[in-house]
Amino acid sequence: MIAVGLTGGIGSGKSTVADLFAARGVPLVDTDVIAHRITAPHGIAMAAIAAQFGPEFVAADGSMDRARMRALVFGDEAARKRLEAITHPLIRAETERETREANGPYVIVVVPLLVESGSWKTRVDRVLAVDCSVETQIARVMRRNGFTREQVLAIIARQATREARLAAADDVIVNDGATLETLAQDVQTLHERYLALSRA
Ligand code: ADP
Fold first, then answer.
1. Which residues of 54-76 are buried (b: 16+ CB within 10 A; e: fewer)?
2. Is the Cα torsion angle 23, 28, 30, 36 positive or negative in sign?
3. What crossing angle do the helices spanning 31-38 and 77-101 adopt, rounded to 10°?
4. pLDDT tens digit string along 40-88?
5. Is the model's pLDDT at 14 over the cut of 80?
6. Which has fewest Cβ within 10 Å: 116, 122, 126, 190?
7. Protein residue with its CA nearest to atom 4 in ligand 1
8. Cβ 120 vs Cβ 5: under 8 Å
9. How far apart are CA 198 and CA 200, in angstroms?
10. Positive or negative, the Cα torsion across 143, 148, 153, 155?
11. Quick one: which atom of ligand 1 is closest to the CA of 112?
12. 11 among the known binding-site residues?
């Protein structure tokens, strides 16, 4: 079983590409979903979060009080590090468990910050980057999230550059001016390559 790490900047089309692999029966492991689940009601990160940050960071339903935590870590790098020291190892462990338990010749592991957060590249067998221009990212995220241009630019500024992502990638899907049909063809080509690699 090989693990393919799928990454890309905000609005590049990661989720769209992941869905096209899923439609071909490929199991997906999504680190964003896992990150959310561990801080959901009675998630496995909640005891440590309550102990580190205090019960006021736990909402009535047992989930993390996201608004409160966001406000804390926004301007407090040390607090962000403390939170990540709890969540990152749990996300890694859960990702490994789900990858191990997945059924299929290969698995797609969606890691939005694969290039930014050090060790992910060594935890997957291949890296697939979804690439598009910054202008395309801005247009898509303004439309999808109702953000302003400045808000999207601020998010992009905190992510890896296009060049860094392409340098880390073994495979690239260009999703600029692509229709869903051409995107599906690109996914199909890669799907066949990954099936062949998993048999090799
Ligand atoms: P990401 O997961 O990387 O943030 P998404 O897959 O959610 O990106 O794509 C961002 C937005 O752009 C979504 O609303 C999606 O439907 C749209 N989108 C992505 N790729 C295309 C495309 N090739 N053609 C039209 N719309 C697209």
1. eeebbeeeebbbeeebeebbeee
2. positive
3. 110
4. 998 999 999 999 999 999 999 999 999 999 999 988 999 999 999 999 9
5. yes
6. 122
7. 11
8. yes
9. 6
10. negative
11. 3
12. yes
Burial of residue 8, with CB atoms counted within 10 A of its CB: 0-12 exposed, 13-18 middle, 19 or more buried: buried
Please say whether the beta carbons of 22 and 118 come within 8 A.
Answer: no
Of the candidates 149, 148, 108, 151, the residue with the CA atom closest to the CA atom of residue 130? 108
Alpha-carbon distances, residue 91 vs 60, 80, 111, 187, 189 (angstroms): 23, 15, 11, 26, 30
Testing ligand 1's pocket by substitution, the residue of 12, 14, 16, 20 carrying the most ligand atoms inside 8 A of its CB is 16
Is any ligand 1 atom within 6 A of the Cβ of residue 13? yes
User: What is the token pair recorded at 81?
Assistant: 């590090």
Distances (CA, A) of 3 to 28, 121, 151, 186, 200: 10, 11, 33, 18, 14
Q: What are phi and psi of 195, to 5 degrees?
A: -65, -45
Q: What are the C-alpha distances in Å from 141 to residues 42, 69, 127, 135, 152?
A: 32, 24, 23, 10, 7
Instruction: Using DSSP bridges, classify how beta strands 171-174 and 28-30 pair: parallel, antiparallel or unpaired.
Output: unpaired
- Whether the pLDDT of residue 119 is over 90: the answer is no
